[in-house]
Each structure stands twice: as structure tokens, then as C-alpha cells.
Amino acid sequence: MATRVACIHTLVVYGASDRADAALGRLARAAVKRGDRVTVLSLAPREPDSRGCCDTRSVLWNKVCADLAREDLTRAAHAAGAGIESGVVHFPGRGAADAVVREAVARGADEIVLADPRVGGLGRLARRRLRRISPVPVSMGDPLGP
User: Domains of the chain, with CATH numbers?
Assistant: First the structure.
């Protein structure tokens, strides 16, 4: 009888949508059955705070983006159920793809899944860049199918 040596760690980039909820739910249930790990990330753009002494727009914008990302993670937790890790990833300007790669490598992920490629903070060019630069395999959409 073969024994499984290591678990697979899937990093999911999540943006709130019904499609993402369904994909994340299927992925999380399958991972729990296999004893694998799932980490869900929500992306939040971040502007530099040092735009001037009296200009609070950047500070407020960063807070709003972080709050929205945390709301997405709350929804993701309901979709996935128990047994997932989660976190908000802040990124500067157009650095979303680089931030996802850094997180995947730092967390020891074996694969990156975009729960719903249409939402989640990665535009078409960022998705293309992610696939090009990532040392971790990237799946666009639900790898388990419908």
C-alpha cells in the first residue's frame, strides 16, 4: 500500500464572484479529503503614503482597498469552509503578478490557482506576466472542472 509523503499546497488568488465561490468550494473540499493545504489570497493595491503632508487621499484609498480585500476573504471563508489559510497581499502600482509570485514562493506553494480569472486584481496583462515569470505552475480557473 502506497503512502502519501507530502501534501500539495495550493495558493488561490480570490476575488468575490459566484464563479470564484464555486471553484474555491470544490477545491477546498477536495484538498481536505486529500489532506492538502489551501491558502486564499486577496489582492489589494497600495499607493505610497508619502504624497504630501496634508494629502490623505492615498491613506484613505489604501484603507478602502485593504477593507475590500478583507471582505473578499470573509466571503471566501464561507465558500471554502474550514481548513484554509488566508491573507491580504498588498502590491504597488502594477506589481500584482510579482506580489503573487513572491507569496507563492515564500509560502512554499506547489500551484497557483486563479479562482475566477475575471476578478481578483489581476488584469489580462498581469495574468500573462504571472504565467511567464512564475516558477510555480499557474492555473486559470477551477482546476477540478465544473
Answer: 19-140 (3.40.50.620)
